[in-house]
Amino acid sequence: MDLVRDAGWRAWPPRLPEQPIFYPVLNEDYAIAIARDWNVKHDGAGFVTRFEVETEFLSRYPVRQAGGRAILELWVPAEELEEFNAHIVGEIQVVHEFR
User: Can you give the pLDDT of all 99 residues of the chain as single tens digits?
Assistant: First the structure.
């Protein structure tokens, strides 16, 4: 989150080499479960964010169902993240934090 803050809450940082895809999830309950049950255990903290992206731009990324009906996400290739960031509308907001 420090890198997002350093970007003025307007961009996601580049992916690490072992992270070829950026996976924004589309369901807050699913995002909470990831942050609370996975990220805290592995990283000591988990954050749920909310942000908007221009609808027309998002149409290039089909909604993917990654498990149950409510487990919905987009798959943004790492090499497209800078362009994705350019289409974020407003700021990225932290809506939940877990430690």
Answer: 999 999 999 999 999 999 999 999 999 999 999 999 999 999 999 999 999 999 999 999 999 998 888 899 999 999 999 999 999 999 999 999 999
Question: Kind of pairing, strands 88-98 and 72-73?
Answer: unpaired
Count of C-beta atoms within a 10 Å radius of residue 40: 16
Amino acid (1-letter code) at residue 50: R
Count of residues for the chain? 99
Burial bucket for residue 69 (CB in 10 Å: 0-12, 13-18, 19+): exposed
Beta bridge partners of 21: 77
Say if residue 98 is exposed, middle or buried (CB neighbours under 10 Å; 0-12, 13-18, 19+): middle
